[in-house]
Amino acid sequence: MAAVLVAIAIGFHGLTGSFLTAENLYNIAQQTAVVGIVASGMALIIVARQIDLSVGSLLGAVGVLMAWLQYTQGWPVVAALLAGLGLALAVGLFQGWLSAVVGIPSFVVTLGGLVSLRGVAFLVADGKTQPVTEPWLLALGGGLEGSLGERGSWLLGVGLILLLWGWQMLQRRAQARAGALPGNFTHDLLKAGLAAFAVFGTVAVFNAYRIEGQEQGQGLPLPLVIWVAVVLLLGFVARHTRFGRYVYAIGGNPDAARLAGIPVRRVMIQLNLLLAALVALAAVVAMARLNAGTNSMGTGMELTVIAAAVIGGVSLAGGSGSVGGTVLGALIIQSIDSGLLLTDVSIGWRMVVLGQVLVAAVVFDRVVQK
Question: Taking the chain, what is the end-to-end CA distance rounded to the nearest angstrom?
């Protein structure tokens, strides 16, 4: 998939001459963050043999509620954001209970949520757009003030590399203490070098993007920083915690997991709550990017999120896949959309192409499973 992403980028740059510019890559990173945040949680849902079709509608309902409470009702910003989080968690708990305890298939439960929550998004503010004006909140959506700047980006890049290298060393020491043979040192060194190249290269590209009238580069946009933090946290949870092991065990064989003593129902409800919290976070970023909350936020996003997870290597059969892979999936989808836009392809044809990309991803998944 990494090779596919590179090929897409080079191909569109050859057609347009502007795809691999710092400005376009900066915009792609910002635009992908909302889908990427939700896709990281959707990956674990699919790994556990579940699905959630309501994430787009839930994002719209939560986003417009938070904006309406701030603008129309005069609530403090933090209180409005907590109210939106509360709504998301309540929906996640209810849908998780219906699936895990009552036994209704998650497809049916979340399909109903897709329709109902879109109606809630309309009813909250009677279909009216609710502006958002709080400066620090708007910065979370990127834009002129929503980035770390050159110095902050370099510091974060160095800190991230030191964190990854330190974790790699801890893993090797843990393997040695357990009496297992550590991984090949040359291989680990190569991985560390590639990680440093990717991080520092990304920082250099975003620092090269300068808005007219500014002497300093923009640096890393805040939506991208939030997205990376979510992926790193969920990746750690999936690979190095008991909860993560339970999720993969349930996805591999739910009956065997139940007989082995794994609390399947509790884990499924926790998964739904986790995804709901990520949707609320994504709603904040989306609302900040739009400078408003609207009832149309997140329309159709559920299919893009599922496609990002599947393209990133998550199997629809459950039991396999990674959170990190969703990064590639989300970037591939957004890169295709951005490239088609730069080549003046109409919205109709862009929708046709993106739909077939989803079909191709499912076909690829099925071939791999066979």
Answer: 19
CA angle 254, 364, 6 (to 5 degrees): 120
- Quick count: other Cβ atoms within 10 Å of Cβ 108? 12
SS3 348: helix
What are the percentages of helix, strand and coil residues in the chain, rounded to 5? 75, 0, 25
C-alpha to C-alpha distances, 172 to 185, 234, 287, nearest whole angstrom: 9, 21, 42
Within a 10 A sphere around the Cβ of 336, how many other Cβ atoms? 17
User: 365 pLDDT exceeds 70?
Assistant: no
- Dihedrals phi, psi of 322, to nearest 5 degrees: -140, 155
pTM above 0.85, yes or no: yes
C-alpha to C-alpha distance for 106 and 229, rounded to whole angstroms: 28
Domains of the chain: residue spans and CATH: 2-144+221-369 (1.10.3470), 147-219 (no CATH)
Distance CA 289, CA 30 (A): 9
The beta strand positions in 246-319, using DSSP E, are 292-293
* Residue carrying the six token digits 């939506």: 223
Contact 311, 361 (CB under 8 A): yes
Give 260-317 pLDDT, tens digit per residue: 999 999 999 999 999 999 999 999 999 998 888 888 888 888 888 998 898 888 888 8
The token pair at 318 is 């459950």
Q: For residues 293 and 290, give the distance between their C-alpha atoms in angstroms, rounded to a whole number.
A: 7
Rounded CA-CA distance 251/45 in Å is: 9
Cβ 113 vs Cβ 53: under 8 Å: yes
